[in-house]
Every structure is written in structure tokens, then in C-alpha cells.
């Protein structure tokens, strides 16, 4: 049912509804026109509304575009003129607002477009850098591949050389195995000789051990005898040492006595020297006295000499 009604909406219905909304001070939209008509689908209303907006500018410059039909009363004509002017002002305001919105949207779209262009340029630069990097990487990979191929050829050449060396080593290993077998045979023969010599040396060692055991027994006996001799010598040495110590003790006593005697003799010598000095002084004094008496008489010299000799004997007597 709705489809049939939508098909029944004409261009005049949409334009009349848009004029009514514009005169009422409202902006005509698809939803408002559908509400105003009470029917219609957006697909049906939309092209007629676009056509109404396209013809609105020409109708605004045509004074008769919204004029009432001839024969209308003056009050209706005045009301229509008033409504026309009001609708014109509203339409102008709405058109200016729509133009401003469109300009703003256009500016925003241009700014968005500029940003998108800048982003696309950045993406292009990034992609260009990636492409250059990919090309450099591809060149590097190509160079690495060439190097790998060259290394592979070198490895194959080395593998061939190694294979030849392995074959040579295998031949040498066979020769070495044969040489080892020959050496094992020689070793077995020499070992048999060594075993025989070892048995002979073992028998000799056993005989030597027995002989050494006998020599050790004889050495032990000789050692015991030597120990006895050393003990006797030690005792004799101790006795000689004791005698020497006793003799040294006696010599020490003798030395002490001799030291005392020497001290006494030295004291006597000092006394004799003092007496000699005194005697010489008295002699000199007596000589001077005799000379003086000689001038008076001879008998005085004998008397003085006798007196001096008696004095000398008297002083020498106490020292013994």
C-alpha cells in the first residue's frame, strides 16, 4: 500500500510541500516533506527535492514565482507578499548558512584532501624508500647468492680434494694396519724373549736376595760387635774426660794459688823498689854529709856507712 502511495507522489506535491515548509520558516528535508505529505519514500522524494533546490534561485529572483493567482483578495495578497518576503529572508539566511556550511565542509574536505595527499605523499615516499630498500636488499641477496654459489663451487672443489685425501688416508691406514700386525708379531716374539729373560733375572734376583740376606745377617753381627766396641770406647772416653776435668780442676786450683803467689811477689817487688828509692835518696844524702864531714875529718864516713847498712837491713827484714 505504501508503495502505491509513493508512486502517486508527483513533482508538484513535493514542490508544494517544500514551499509550505520554507514559508513556515523550516528547511525542506526529505523527512520533513514525508511528514508533511504523510507518505512517500526517500527514493521518490529525494530527486524532486533536488530539483526544487536547483530551481529555487531562479524562483527567488522571479517576483511572480510565489505570487498568488489573480483575483485573490487584497488581504490575501498582502499576506502572501509578507510571507514571500519572510520566506525570502529565511531562504537567504538558510542559503547563506548552507553556503557557509558547504564552504566549511569544502574547506574541511580540502584540508582533509591536503592531509590525505600529504599522507599519500608520505606513504609514497615510504613505499619509494621501501622499494629502494627492497631493490638494495634484492641486490644484496643477488650478491649473497653469487657469493654462496662461488662458495658452493669452492666447497665442491674442497670436497673433491678431501675425497682424494680420504682415499689416500684409507690406503695409508691399510698400510699402517699391516705394519701394526707385523709389529704385533715382532712384539709377541720379543715378549717371549723378555719373559724368558725375566725368569732368568728373577732367579738371579732370588739368589741375590738370599746372598744379601746372609750378608745382612753378617752385617748385623758385625754391627753388634761394633756397637760393643763403640760402647767400650765411649766409656773410656768418658773416663778420660772425667780425669781431664779433674786435672783441669786441679790446674785451676794451682793457677789460683800461683796467682796469689804472684800477687805477693809483686807486692814485695813494689816494696823493694820503694826501699831502693829510699836507699838511693839516703845514699845521696849520706854522700852529701860525708863530703861535708870530710872537710872536717875522715872517721865520719865509716860511721855513716855503717848506719846506712843497718837501716837497710832493718827495713828489709819484715818483708822476709
- Count, helices: 6
What integer value in Å does the Rg equal?
Answer: 82 Å
Distance between the termini: 193 Å
Largest sheet: none
Q: Output the helix-strand order.
A: HHHHHH
| Chain-averaged pLDDT | 80
Number of strands: 0
Q: Approximately what portion of the residues adopt beta-strand conformation?
A: under 5%
Poorly predicted parts = 1-6, 299-305
Main attributes of the structure:
320 residues; 6 helices; mainly alpha; 0% strand
Task: Please describe the topology of this protein.
Elements: H1 2-7, H2 11-23, H3 30-37, H4 42-61, H5 74-294, H6 299-316
Please give a quick description of this structure.
With 320 residues, the protein is mostly helical. Helices cover 89% and strands 0% of the residues. It has a domain at 2-132.
Overview of the molecule:
The protein has helices spanning 2-7, 11-23, 30-37, 42-61, 74-294, 299-316. By secondary structure, the chain is mostly helical. The protein has a domain at 2-132. Helix 2 packs across helix 4, helix 3 packs across helix 4 and helix 5 (74-294) crosses helix 6 (299-316). It is elongated and about 220 Å long. The chain starts with a helix and ends with a helix.
Amino acid at each position: 500500500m505504501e508503495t502505491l502511495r509513493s508512486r502517486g507522489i508527483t513533482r508538484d506535491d513535493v514542490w508544494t510541500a517544500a514551499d509550505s515548509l520554507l514559508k513556515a520558516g523550516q528547511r525542506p528535508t526529505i523527512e520533513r516533506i514525508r511528514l508533511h505529505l504523510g507518505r512517500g519514500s526517500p527514493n521518490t522524494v529525494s530527486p524532486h527535492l533536488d530539483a526544487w533546490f536547483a530551481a529555487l534561485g531562479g524562483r527567488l529572483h522571479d517576483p511572480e514565482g510565489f505570487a498568488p493567482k489573480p483575483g485573490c483578495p487584497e488581504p490575501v495578497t498582502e499576506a502572501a507578499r509578507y510571507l514571500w518576503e519572510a520566506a525570502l529572508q529565511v531562504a537567504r539566511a538558510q542559503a547563506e548558512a548552507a553556503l557557509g556550511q558547504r564552504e566549511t565542509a569544502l574547506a574541511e574536505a580540502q584540508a582533509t584532501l591536503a592531509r590525505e595527499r600529504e599522507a599519500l605523499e608520505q606513504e609514497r615516499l615510504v613505499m619509494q624508500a621501501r622499494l629502494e630498500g627492497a631493490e638494495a636488499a634484492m641486490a644484496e641477496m643477488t650478491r649473497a647468492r653469487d657469493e654462496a654459489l662461488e662458495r658452493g663451487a669452492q666447497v665442491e672443489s674442497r670436497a673433491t680434494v678431501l675425497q682424494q685425501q680420504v682415499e689416500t688416508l684409507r690406503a695409508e691406514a691399510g698400510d699402517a694396519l699391516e705394519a701394526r700386525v707385523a709389529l704385533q708379531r715382532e712384539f709377541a716374539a720379543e715378549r717371549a724373549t723378555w719373559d724368558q729373560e725375566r725368569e732368568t733375572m728373577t732367579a738371579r734376583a732370588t739368589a741375590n736376595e738370599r746372598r744379601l740376606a746372609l750378608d745382612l745377617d753378617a752385617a748385623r753381627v758385625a754391627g753388634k760387635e761394633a756397637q760393643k766396641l763403640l760402647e767400650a770406647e765411649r766409656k773410656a772416653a768418658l773416663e778420660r774426660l772425667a780425669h781431664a776435668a779433674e786435672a783441669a780442676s786441679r790446674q785451676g786450683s794451682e793457677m789460683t794459688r800461683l796467682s796469689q803467689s804472684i800477687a805477693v811477689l809483686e807486692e814485695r817487688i813494689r816494696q823493694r823498689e820503694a826501699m831502693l828509692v829510699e836507699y838511693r835518696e839516703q845514699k845521696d844524702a849520706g854522700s852529701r854529709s860525708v863530703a861535708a864531714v870530710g872537710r872536717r875529718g875522715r872517721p865520719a864516713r865509716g860511721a855513716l856507712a855503717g848506719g846506712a847498712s843497718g837501716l837497710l837491713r832493718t827495713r828489709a827484714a819484715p818483708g822476709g
